[in-house]
Design brief:
Layout (H helix, E strand, L loop, with lengths): L1 H32 L2 E2 L1 H9 L3 E5 L3 H5 L7 E2 L7 H6 L6 E5 L4 H12 L4 E5 L2 H7 L9
Length: 139
């Protein structure tokens, strides 16, 4: 009887670990789908014709300078989520903010909405500028 209990507990523990492993693998896949990219990688991806660069900073921040060709979608706008949902999910998106917090949350929200390819600029526009990349005044 004790052997049966021990075997049952062992099997339950093993199955419990397998579920945890499956969840970990699932989480790893999400990480693989949502990479942080360096300023150099971001620049390369943005030069490919099918990418949309999204600046999720505030109007005041954007007034100081923006990555050339970027489209602003203010993270603080009450309609932000609705505007995200209206974007074409089949396109490639490159997202950035000042240092990476808002763009990371934006990227996560976009994946939850069904977007397939969303890249986040690691360190935001600060890293971009720090790498000597060009920033322009918005039109």
């Amino acid at each position: 009887m004790i052997r049966i209990v021990i075997i049952t507990i062992s099997l339950l523990a093993t199955m419990s670990c397998q579920n945890t492993s499956a969840e970990s693998n699932s989480e790893k896949n999400v990480v693989q789908q949502s990479p942080l990219v360096s300023p150099d990688e971001f620049a390369k991806l943005s030069s490919e014709g099918n990418a949309v660069v999204l600046d999720v900073r505030s109007d005041r921040e954007v007034a100081a300078g923006i990555i050339e060709g970027a489209v602003q979608l203010n993270f603080q706008d009450p309609q932000f989520t609705q505007k995200l949902q209206e974007l074409d999910k089949s396109k490639v998106y490159l997202v950035y903010c000042a240092s990476g917090g808002r763009s990371s949350r934006t990227q996560k929200a976009m994946f939850e909405m069904g977007f397939k390819e969303v890249y986040d600029l690691n360190g935001g526009i600060r890293a971009w500028s720090g790498a000597g990349k060009k920033v322009v005044k918005p039109d």
